[in-house]
């Protein structure tokens, strides 16, 4: 009789585990959808010897709009949702290799904010384009703004 109850209880547990396993939703460790945009532009002060400080004048940005800054060094804040992506910087359609200069990095839940230094801009109007790609995801996303650098 004891063997019968052991067999029945183990059969019941196996059935229960299979039922639970088939009824649960699959969860992925990687996000299928992610978003990226330039969220702010700010002036950056150069103290020499690769020491920079983010200025107090920051402007919220919208794709394609033009913004005035008062220094030749600027900080571009990028907002990345659901992934931590790799960013590339283009100034007037020319790739600049200084994209590794991250001035600030913050994470709030699944949203990441990276502020990138773009330095030594000449006076005039420049198109700043940031391209982002997430590791493990084939999508390439980009956003751009125009900045006016004073003489």
Q: How is this structure best described in words?
A:
By secondary structure, the protein is mainly beta. It has one domain (about 35-150): Immunoglobulins (Immunoglobulin-like, Sandwich), CATH 2.60.40. Helices cover about 15% and strands about 50% of the residues. The protein is built from one helix and ten strands. The longest helix is centred in the N-terminal third of the chain and has 22 residues, at about 1-25. The mean pLDDT is about 85. Keywords: Signal.
Can I get a quick summary?
The chain has 151 residues and is mainly beta.
Features:
151 residues; Immunoglobulin-like; five-stranded mixed β-sheet; mainly beta; 1 helix
- Number of extended strands: 10
Structural class: mainly beta
**CATH architecture descriptor name:** Sandwich
Radius of gyration: 25 Å
Rough shape? Answer: rod-shaped
Order of helices and strands: HEEEEEEEEEE
Outline the low-pLDDT stretches: none
Task: Please name the CATH topology.
Answer: Immunoglobulin-like
- The largest sheet has its strands arranged as 2-1-4-8-7
Question: Mean pLDDT, nearest integer?
Answer: 85
Distance, first to last CA: 95 Å
The structural domain count equals: 1
Helix content: 10-25%
Residues in β-strands, percent = over 45%
Q: Going by CATH, what is the homologous superfamily?
A: Immunoglobulins
In the CATH scheme, the class would be Mainly Beta
Helix count, per DSSP?
1
Sheet bearing the most strands, described?
Answer: 5 strands, antiparallel
């Amino acid at each position: 009789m004891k063997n019968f109850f052991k067999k029945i209880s183990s059969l019941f547990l196996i059935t229960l585990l299979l039922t639970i396993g088939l009824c649960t939703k699959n969860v992925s460790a990687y996000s299928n959808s992610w978003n990226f945009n330039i969220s702010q532009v700010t002036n950056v002060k150069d103290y020499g010897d690769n020491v920079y400080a983010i200025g107090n004048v920051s402007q919220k940005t919208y794709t394609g709009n033009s913004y005035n800054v008062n220094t030749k060094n600027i900080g571009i804040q990028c907002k990345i949702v659901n992934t931590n992506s790799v960013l590339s910087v283009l100034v007037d359609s020319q790739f600049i290799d200084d994209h590794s200069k991250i001035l600030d990095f913050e994470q709030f839940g699944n949203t990441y904010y990276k502020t990138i230094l773009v330095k030594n801009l000449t006076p005039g109007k420049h198109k700043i384009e940031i391209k982002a790609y997430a590791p493990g995801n084939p999508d390439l996303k980009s956003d751009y703004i125009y900045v006016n650098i004073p003489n």
